[in-house]
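chain below, 202 aa
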Amino acid sequence: MIAHEDPTALSHSFHEVVTAGADASRPIRQLQSRCLEPGKYAAHLERWLQHFKSQQVHLVDGDELRRDPASVLNRLQRDADIRPFVDYSRRLRFSKKKGFFCEVTEAGKTRCLGRGKGREYSPMQRETELHLREYYRLHNEALVKVLRRLGYAVPGWLEEELKDSGGGGGGAVSAGEEISAVTKEDDHDLAEEKSPAQQARR
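prediction:
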């Protein structure tokens, strides 16, 4: 939110925003909601499943998408039967300067997104991480149940959280981890969900 020059984010720390109570000012509560609500994946997926059959929902491992986007996008096109097929191994190139894959133009040059994309974040305070871990615990436990019901493997970041908590449930995850969901409809719209901690910090 700071990158978008949100006045509330500029005048309060991330910790202050995500830990604010019900007695906080309305702008802080609104910002808190914008930070925290997107990370409640199970609730979002359940709403999608009210409108789409499970066979129409395709989940993507965000770590794999970041690591090897061409393979993920090519596989997604095949699974969703998207035509014409675009070979992204020819359309994407890793930028050492940006730290992400960028578009390869017809002229063969690399074109990346703006400065607001791919920016680095300072390490999260331990106190904030523990707060988010507890905040998202039940939501992540619900996410595990949804994923298993749909026949998906539990992603690595969530497995680690479950292991660390003795199998009791997940929690806030490190920035950079995410789950993406895609509906296999005619327009092939893509909707992406970031990790709880990553969403909160944007």
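The domain at 2-201 is CATH 3.40.50.300 (Rossmann fold). The chain has a mean pLDDT of 81.
thats it, cya
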